[in-house]
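Bug #77: duplicate submission created two jobs. Keeping one. Sequence:
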Amino acid sequence: MTETTTTAPARTTAPALDFKAALIAGLIAGAVFMMLEMALVATVGGGSPWGPPRMIAAIGMGRDVLPPPATFEIGMFVVAMLIHFALSIVLAIVFALIAGRLGLVPALIAGAVFGLALYGLHFYGMTSVFPWFAMARGGIAIFAHISFGVALAWSYKAFQNKVVRT
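Kept job's structure:
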């Protein structure tokens, strides 16, 4: 009688979510987005750089913070940054769960698509709740959202499964 041995098939499992990498990537991509949005609105769009933060702050503070005037105000800016970076981190976690197993180039492409999908969600889907976002539809917002997605993908892949010393 011959003895047969069986071995379990090799499993390929998705890497666990690298929460620290997602956190860092969310902060980096959020900063890239905010700097681009503010700079492009001021230079290309002919508006105030404080318009985008005011639109974000209005999510938590209500319509009264919307421009005019589109000037700097510390309370508004702090609320805008808290909301913006919290959302950026949540979106980074979602992206990491979707594209964490991808290589760099596919992740960058997925990031661009993710950013474009976020633009659609923010400027078309969410306008029933936050109608002021409709006024910011256009090329600047599209570019900033795609840049967010690419920066998110790049930074997540750069920090994924790496030891980051604090």
